[in-house]
Automatic annotation (TrEMBL), chain A:
GO terms for biological process: protein ubiquitination; ubiquitin-dependent protein catabolic process. This is Ubiquitin-protein ligase. PANTHER family: E3 UBIQUITIN-PROTEIN LIGASE RNF26. The lineage of its organism: Eukaryota, Fungi, Dikarya, Ascomycota, Saccharomycotina. It comes from the Eukaryota. It comes from Pichia kluyveri (Yeast). Keywords: Ligase, Membrane, Transmembrane, Transmembrane helix. The keyword Nuclease does not apply. The keyword Transmembrane applies. Residues 441-454, 483-511 have a biased composition (Acidic residues). InterPro entries: Znf_RING/FYVE/PHD. Residues 441-461, 481-511 are annotated as: Disordered. The chain crosses the membrane at residues 52-75, 87-109, 182-202, 209-225, 237-261, 383-403.
Automatic annotation (TrEMBL), chain B:
Pfam families: UQ_con. This is E2 ubiquitin-protein ligase peroxin 4. Residues 3-165 form the UBC core domain. The active site is at residue 105. Transmembrane segments: none annotated. GO terms for molecular function: ATP binding; ligase activity; transferase activity. Belongs to the ubiquitin-conjugating enzyme family. Keywords: ATP-binding, Ligase, Nucleotide-binding, Transferase, Ubl conjugation pathway. Gene3D superfamilies: Ubiquitin Conjugating Enzyme. CDD domains: UBCc_ScPEX4-like. It comes from Pichia kluyveri.
Amino acid sequence: MSGNDTVSDIESNWVIVRLLDSFSNAIYQQSKEDNTININNNINNEGASAFISYWMSPFSMMCMITAVIMNRIVIFASSRRNNRLPLISNIILRIFAIYLLLIGSYEIFLKLWNYNTTSTTDNILKSLHLSLCISQIFDTFISVASGLKPSMETGITLFEYSLAFQEIEKSTDNDNSISIEILIIAIISILNQLNIHLLGLFNLLNYKLITSTIIGLFTLGFYSYNLINGSISNLPVIIIIGYLPHFCILNLIILSLLIYLTTGLVKFSFNDLLINNLLINWNSINISLSDDFYTALIKFGEFILNLSINQCYIRETSNIYLPIDNFIQMEINNMKNKNKNKNMNGYNNEIINNPELMNIEKQNDEIKKISVFKWVIFRRLKMFNNVVMKFIKLIVLKIISIFRKRNNNRINDNDDNNKVVKYRIIEDDNGVKCIYLDNDNDNNDNDNNDNDNNDNDKLNINEINDEDLNKMYSQLLLNTELPDNDESNDYQESDDNEDENDEDIPTDNESIVSDEEIQELFTNNDINHILTDMREQHIMTYHMSHEKEFVPISQLTRSNFSKYYTDDMKLLDYLIERRLKMVNNNNNKETFNDDKCKEINDDQLGICVVCHENSRQIVLWPCRCLAICESCRVSLFIREFATCVCCRGEVEGFSRIYVP
Amino acid sequence: MSNAQKRLLKEFKKYSNPNNKLSESIISLTPINDNNLFDWIAIINPIETIYKKGFYKLSIKLSNTYPLTPPIIKFITNESQIDRDEQITYQIPHCNIDFKTGEICLDILKIDNWSPIWTLEYSILAIIYLLNNQEPNSPLNIDFANLIKLNDKLAINSIINYYIK
């Protein structure tokens, strides 16, 4: 050892380090020689030589070795269970990683500080890439050892960085200088790693989205600045390609937000716009704070595109039809469409969830199934592909619709919307309060007139003025007072109930009596007592159930509990809460017996259109009519009805829903 | 109480409630007597159709499977002399209505096209709709269907008004 020391003072004391050093030197030499040979002999073209030189470069070696190490770490970790890294070693490892990162990037900062002075740039990128690799290995180790998902790759993967650095290395072989853009890119990569480690140090990885958004926005801003400036060509090709999708999606998001804003300003209200829905149903975007910026960006972009393609369709499928009264119009329209296919009876085919929702869930599951350690590039490309396809679809749809409008003057602007969403449920604090037609009555009338005219092919709507239209309409329907019926939609239920109260019919009496009997059994206080501490009950049961298992005593934390406290339980609790509220309301008004009955029935969506007795429980797919009750569904199935009783659409299946 | 009876009771309550107006064309819609909910009578005055001057009587017979099977609705054409109401017109010339028996040919009152969401009121409204939209291609009254095909409005109106008192 002492002999070696005398030979060269650059080499270190340890044999392994020396070995590695000489190995890397050999690789480096090899790559250079390879280059020169190829260029001299003109055997291969440029691309092939670049390809070979990449595989021979130290960057690719680092990348491959890192990949192998990380793979081993994960595999070893997966064979162990109940692994938990002590806090102190977590901190030490993180700090060490940060230290290494700072050392690796020190020269970059130095270079940035006095940019104009010429200095050797040989090892800057290599040490940077080495520190990136090591930091990722550390991160993987720490997170795997503490049972978490590794939180690496943000935007550009290590592999892409290695490609980019190799490209820079090759291009700077001659003039020996690095452009300032590349330095900034390098610093961004360092910042990303530092971000992860710092957050991990303070155990804040769940809020990664915030910091990574800041860095990501800065990156994309820098990217677009370069793009506008024309200095984009200074960046390596890989970096340009890598950030392009994110850049496009960000622009898309900004564009659509701008459109929403302008429409909001023009209409002077945001109530009708879908963006309002988006704000209410924020959860459905499926972005959590622990996501990293680029994943969140793609998800958000996809969501917005979805929103604009299927205008009425958000994941909650807010538009369940609630046909109440004027089905004679629909019926008359549908009388001509005779059903030809009678394959299978949908009234006996229960579908647990909305078919479209199930598709989305399936997709989500597929995404989850793909292991984290597969190439992120691949997954991201897939997602990006999705986004692009949807974007194209959107554009094509818009173009088609424009053409249609031009060709067919008779179609109103509102026509599409009217057909899709006819009813809407307004929700109050007290629950579902009233149901109203989405369109004005006049509008609706005109539409129907349109349809009739189209069917007859006798009348051209452009030749008739509005008054005639109205006359025609009334003639068509033979003055059956349909407009009246429309207007009374909202009040139909309450009218019914008043009837019930006015007359003493045995059934009503029975129901009232049974209510009272129930109230005798449970006093209000009892119910209150049972129900108010529902959450605490859940907490207790959770705690108890976990002590039974032989898990090392885990503390009852909020995050653990929130995992246990599933959406189903939340829904159940919500329903109970609603019932409780109703009971309270009724008790307050107990002196007025009539009001009480009215109160109960007002909250319902309406009664089953077949038996006029039970509440509506069955949603039919794919027409989404919520009109019948369970017992009527059974009798319809027995009678072999194949079409929806309301809209005459084909019935593929049904779902039960329970309205609180 | 069977499902059909429950449903008919509900409908009866609805129609007999003075607050809940029926369509102007329907003068009355009630069971024949209070003990039997399966036998109804409706009197219509189809204003804004070519039959607007007449009052017509319809008999509605329901089965025990009612909302799932259609009601049997006929125009009353041969009322006995004792029950005869002077205001009512017992002859209706219409190409889809049998002149002698009062039978109505309307697809939605056939079992294949019937939908349980239809109430008695809407069935009657559908018949009123039929009055103005005659289908001469599937006639029960062939002579009148020929007039409709020829589109001889004067003749059509004259025949209708001839029977109306």
